[in-house]
Amino acid sequence: MTPxxxxxxxxxxxxxxxxRPHGYVVxxxxxEGDAFEVRDVRWRADRLKWTxxxxxxxxxxxxHRSYETVRIELHRLTVRWKSSAGExxxxxxxxxx
Length: 97
Prior knowledge:
Shape: globular
Structural class: mainly beta
Number of helices: 0
Number of domains: 1
CATH class: Mainly Beta
Order of helices and strands: EEEEEEEE
Strand content: over 45%
Largest sheet: 8 strands, antiparallel, barrel
CATH architecture: Beta Barrel
Distance between the termini: 12 Å
Number of strands: 8
Strand order of the largest sheet: 1-2-3-4-5-6-7-8
């Protein structure tokens, strides 16, 4: 199973994962429609990894949060995340394929 589809995280942000000829692309938007910058999308050993750049909004350093897929199911995507603010696991819910 591949992670292709539209996924909603626990904060309500949408992560759209698309297949490309030589890998994947990830797009991420807030519920209000604001887009986050996504960098370093890689597919290795059946795991998709990407880094989300979350603007600080106060002029300080932006937060870089890295994601890695842990488990891909039909309607759930479990990811491990890591940033300077901490680390953990989160379950995304499929919005559409």
